[in-house]
Specification:
Length: 352
């Protein structure tokens, strides 16, 4: 093996100009192909694929609920009761997010429960009413259709048609003037798993009306921390603009998988950069104080830099994409290569 390397060394010594030109061309090509590689900030790419079921990641990413950002608004004074003030701030925030969404980072916003949703539910009940009726409903219906009860009921409905509630009740009354569908509608409340939330002015509140909730669905999956990072910055900017107002007494918070994934990715990258900088500082300090040879910097860092460059160029051929976080963790391998140079140089210096 030593003859091979000695032969290469003597060949380079014999044809220095050609060897340097070929070396420079090789570095240029490696740099070009390394530049073509796509850096992904998908945290899930760090997971080993061999021990994971084939479709697990795809199934997790397909769950739309996991990609939502939930907003929570409440008054700074926990004893205050101003649901309309919360609605005012929430409306300003949602309008700002919707109208200033120039990069199309937001796919949809769910802020109010549309009246059409309630009407569609009512239409479904009416269409399949016989299937929703139970045995105990028939005596109540028989009582409803008695002439005296019908008259009282119609008078009540007539007054409702001239009240503000007629905006929502008109269609219901005209389609079911007797009110046969009321009992099946009441039974739908049993499907409400949590009674802690109510609708106030078609907006979701907690039962005490002190906390307002809504959510948005980002355009990109929660694992796409690069684009979701832009979204988080955009949301923070809009929230700051609202909360900087002098008369704003509302706290705005948000949570969800996209925000958590972005924060984790940001922290991992910051930790990797800090670790690498500390390691480089320690190496420079060690060379300056112990070896005291400036040429050693070149000997240490050139092989490591070239190995990273050629590795990235090879990866661009076979993979085309690599996790930026995993690439940062690859600095451990660079550290091992630098340690090997120290090992060889120390033995050479001691004459071994």
């Amino acid at each position: 093996m030593e003859r091979l390397f000695l032969g290469i060394f003597f060949l380079i010594q014999k044809f220095k100009v050609v060897s340097l030109a070929a070396f420079a061309l090789l570095i240029a090509l490696a740099g070009y192909f390394a530049y073509q590689i796509q850096l992904s900030e998908d945290v899930s790419k760090l997971l080993p694929e061999k021990n994971i079921p084939v479709n697990l990641i795809e199934n997790l990413e397909a769950i739309d609920f996991a990609d939502r950002l939930f907003f929570h608004l409440h008054l700074k004074d926990s004893n205050a009761y101003k649901p309309d003030a919360l609605i005012e701030i929430a409306t300003a925030l949602t309008d700002s997010l919707a109208h200033k969404n120039q990069d199309s980072l937001i796919q949809s916003l769910f802020y109010t429960v549309e009246a059409s949703s309630i009407e569609n539910t009512y239409q479904l009940i009416l269409k399949y009413l016989p299937f929703y009726l139970q045995e105990q409903d028939y005596p109540a219906i028989e009582e409803m259709i008695q002439s005296e009860n019908l008259e009282k009921n119609f008078r009540k409905k007539y007054k409702t048609l001239f009240s503000p509630a007629s905006m929502f009740m008109r269609k219901m009354i005209t389609k079911d003037p007797v009110g046969i569908s009321l009992e099946p509608l009441k039974r739908l409340q049993t499907f409400q798993f949590d009674t802690s939330f109510i609708l106030y002015k078609n907006i979701v509140f907690t039962s005490d009306k002190k906390h307002l909730l809504f959510y948005l669905t980002p355009k990109y999956k929660s694992s796409d921390t690069k684009n979701n990072g832009r979204l988080i910055a955009f949301i923070d900017e809009q929230i700051d603009q609202i909360q900087l107002a002098d008369d704003c007494d509302v706290e705005i918070h948000y949570f969800g998988a996209p925000a958590v994934a972005y924060a984790n990715s940001k922290q991992i990258k910051a930790d990797i950069i800090l670790t690498v900088l500390i390691a480089l500082f320690a190496i420079v300090l060690l060379v300056a104080l112990f070896y005291r040879r400036k040429r050693l910097y070149f000997i240490i860092f050139l092989p490591a830099a070239l190995s990273v460059l050629f590795s990235l160029s090879i990866l661009s051929f076979f993979k085309g994409e690599i996790s930026a976080i995993a690439l940062g963790m690859g600095s451990i391998l660079v550290g091992i290569s630098i340690d090997y140079v120290f090992h060889i140089f120390t033995h050479a210096q001691n004459g071994h």
